[in-house]
Amino acid sequence: MSAVVELAQPRKLVPRWHTHGNLLLVIDGACTYLRADDVEQLAGIPPWGEGDTVLGDSWPLDVEGVHFYLLDDALRRCEQHGTRNAREFAAWLLDFLASVDDAVLENAHRVVPFTEALTVAQAARDLTRQHGIRVNRKQLFAALDDLDWIGRNSPEDDWVISPKAHARDLLTLREVNIPAPTRDGLRRYLQVHVTRRGLAELVKALTPAEPQPAPAHLPTPLF
Question: Is the entire prediction scored with pTM above 0.70?
Answer without folding.
Answer: no
